TrEMBL record, chain A:
The chain crosses the membrane at residues 32-57, 100-119, 131-151, 163-183, 204-226, 280-300. The keyword Kinase does not apply. The lineage of its organism: Bacteria, Bacillati, Bacillota, Bacilli, Bacillales. CDD domains: TM_PBP2. One of its GO terms (biological process) is transmembrane transport. Belongs to the binding-protein-dependent transport system permease family. SUPFAM superfamilies: MetI-like. Keywords: Cell membrane, Membrane, Transmembrane, Transmembrane helix, Transport. Gene3D superfamilies: MetI-like. It is a multi-pass membrane protein. It comes from the Bacteria. It comes from Evansella caseinilytica. This is Putative aldouronate transport system permease protein. Signal peptide: none annotated.
From TrEMBL, chain B:
It is a multi-pass membrane protein. It holds the Pfam family BPD_transp_1. InterPro entries: MetI-like, MetI-like_sf, UgpAE/MalFG_permease. PANTHER family: BLL4140 PROTEIN (PTHR43227). This is Putative aldouronate transport system permease protein. GO terms for biological process: transmembrane transport. It comes from Evansella caseinilytica. The lineage of its organism: Bacteria, Bacillati, Bacillota, Bacilli, Bacillales.
Length: 314, 314
């Protein structure tokens, strides 16, 4: 159904475009403005790209070249030293694996619970619906804050466990509302027909609702996974054991606290040299940690846009 | 206050019917259970825990047995010498951020909307959305690289100045760094929602306006911006409601000992006093102070906007 809409939209847009072309060509000042608009957009694209490319290219340069001359395209200055050092040290890899575990666990729990609750709340005539809605919505306006939440997690004995990272933020009330809105939009006749055929609630949910809900599940999962992957704060306050650190905390040590991981400078270096190497490692660490998402996201662009759109429904 | 007999019979019948419904549809309540439990544990229990803001909490005595001290922590925060600074830092950072950052996605969307070739538009979107997917740790790490005294920005500036500027340790630059990097990262992605609204514009409006001799700028002003108004209103209310809780994760990472005069905001202060220094009650009190102001802001702005043009959030 959505694809149909997109197709229609495109056609419509094309038509509008042609109409615009026809009419706009009459006005000279409009063409000047469109030209300025194009130049400004190119400028925007450059501003976005330059820092990213700088880090990417810098990560392949020798440290002394990078720090004294800046970016250089001379092949003699190329080096994979930064990457070699990163992979020599286990912490980035371990952080990577930890992050995959946290993000996957978070996604499964968060999306599963959200979908189930959203479905129940979408059923017409659910007794007590109003109570549950108020129960959920109230948390959007008021919360206990950082300290009481921390004390609770501590009281539950979750400090320094995976659960402290995953559970406290797993339920976004906003997401439950989104799921509910989506389920409400599904045609009621399907459910009715299945019910007349004698299907139970569980069966209806599993065999009719869920297959129709792939888009919303996918969108919720995508946002949950990336949100967890990129976050550091929960992990920073709840985890003490370094072997449990997610990637972002390891990156924080390297990029912001300027701590050099022992495995990365296994060779004995002079102090000045070590500083240069530490600087170099930052570039490679950024690339290694950010590239997977940046490469993958264009394939999912459609879903991200959809996610924003679903979110804009009142 | 005795009820009429008729009423109680009806309410008994109603209760009976509700009970019957719940028994029949218990599976729906089973679906709701995990979400209700998680929200109860991680959202409602901390609301109870916030009572420690009015107590002298000690972990040994527990929440119940700690002594009540009334508003002592609130007054000591309000009277402390750095209250004004921290409060104003929070307010300035988010207000300037909102004023500067809010229009950018709108302008980007208006600009992109004028790009008529779908392929080019798609590519520009792909690029300007990308920074959204970079984690806050990496963004701050990049800022430290670019803005360091020996970094690329100072290399460029060395043409104009003889001494490198230490951006990261100068309190005068903190807000600019925070806000500009926020726009760099988020404005592109935030424009999605406005672009969607624009694509739903009735093309006849533009055609009619053009026939009447309206220039491109006039049409953008009188049609496109009017189309965007409702979306802008909702997002603005949400942003103002969040003014007291802006960008804590990033502010904390950007803090250096030197830039604290401008970079210390309420949330980072709560973290340091409440969790790091173990000043539980004081931290909880400052956090509560913050939540109450946020809530009040949200209610006030919603009221004002409702009075002004009939759009409302809830």
């Amino acid at each position: 159904m959505n694809d149909l809409m997109v197709g229609l939209d495109k056609k419509k847009r094309k038509k509008i475009g042609q109409a615009k072309n026809r009419l706009i060509n009459n006005s000279k000042s409009d063409r000047v403005i469109l030209f300025i608009n194009k130049m400004l957009l190119i400028f925007v694209v450059i501003i976005v790209l330059v820092p990213l490319l700088y880090v990417l290219i810098g990560s392949f340069l020798q440290p002394q070249v990078l720090l004294t001359q800046g970016i250089s395209f001379n092949p003699e200055h190329w080096s994979l030293d930064g990457y070699r050092r990163i992979f020599n040290d286990g912490s980035i890899l371990r952080g990577f694996l930890n992050s995959i575990m946290y993000a996957t666990g978070f996604t499964v729990i968060s999306v599963g619970v959200t979908i189930l609750a959203g479905y129940s709340l979408s059923v017409d005539g659910l007794v007590g619906k109003k109570f549950f809605m108020v129960f959920f919505l109230f948390t959007m306006f008021f919360n206990g804050g950082m300290v009481p939440t921390y004390l609770l997690v501590k009281e539950l004995g979750l400090i320094n466990t995976v659960w402290a990272v995953i559970l406290p933020g797993a339920i976004g009330v906003w997401n439950i509302i989104l799921a509910r809105t989506y389920f409400k939009g599904l045609p009621n006749e399907l459910k009715e027909a299945a019910r007349i055929d004698g299907a139970s609630d569980v069966k209806i949910f599993l065999s009719i609702i869920l297959p129709l809900s792939k888009p919303i599940i996918f969108v919720l999962a995508l946002y949950a996974f990336i949100g967890q992957w990129n976050s550091y704060f929960q992990a920073m306050i709840y985890l003490e054991d370094r072997s449990l650190y997610p990637l972002q905390l390891i990156l924080r040590e390297i990029l912001i606290q300027n701590e050099v991981q022992p495995g990365m400078i296994a060779d004995q270096l002079a102090r000045a040299e070590m500083q240069r190497v530490a600087e170099m490692i930052k570039y490679s660490a950024i690339v290694v940690s950010s590239l997977p998402l940046l490469i993958m996201y264009p394939f999912f662009q459609k879903y991200f846009e959809k996610g924003v759109m679903v979110g804009s429904l009142k | 206050m005795a009820e009429k007999p008729g009423h109680s019979i009806i309410s008994i019948q109603k209760n009976k019917r509700s009970f019957e419904y719940i028994r029949k549809n218990f599976i729906l309540y089973l679906f709701l259970a995990p979400a209700v439990m998680l929200v109860f544990i991680f959202n409602y229990i901390p609301m109870y825990g916030v009572t420690i803001a009015f107590k002298d909490f000690s972990p040994i005595k527990g929440i119940l047995n700690s002594e009540w001290v009334g508003f002592e922590h609130f007054t000591s925060f309000l009277q402390s010498p750095n209250f004004q600074q921290i409060f104003m830092n929070t307010l300035k950072l988010s207000t300037f951020g909102l004023l500067l950052g809010f229009p950018v996605p709108v302008i980007l969307a208006l600009m992109l909307n004028q790009v008529r070739r779908a392929g080019i538009k798609k590519h520009i979107q792909l690029i300007i959305y990308a920074p959204h997917f970079i984690s806050v740790v990496v963004i701050v790490g990049m800022l430290f690289i670019f803005l360091s005294p020996a970094g690329p920005l100072n290399n460029i500036l060395s043409v104009f100045t003889d001494k490198p500027i230490s951006f990261m340790s100068d309190p005068n630059y903190f807000r600019t760094i925070f806000i500009v990097s926020g726009i760099w990262q988020g404005a592109g992605f935030a424009s999605i929602i406005y672009l969607a609204a624009l694509s739903n514009t009735d093309p006849q409006l533009h055609d009619a306006a053009t026939l009447d001799g309206a220039s491109l700028l006039q049409r953008i002003w009188h049609i496109d911006i009017q189309v965007l108004k409702p979306t802008m209103t909702v997002l603005f209310i949400l942003a103002v409601g969040g003014i007291m809780s802006v960008g804590f994760e990033k502010a904390y990472l950007l803090q250096t000992d030197m830039n604290l005069p401008t970079s210390e905001i309420i949330d980072t202060y709560v973290y340091k006093r409440g969790l790091q220094a173990g000043d539980w009650s004081f931290g909880a009190a400052v956090g509560l102070f913050n939540s109450v102001i946020s809530l009040a802001l949200l209610v006030i702005v919603n009221y004002v906007v409702k009075k002004l043009n009939g759009e409302t959030l809830y």
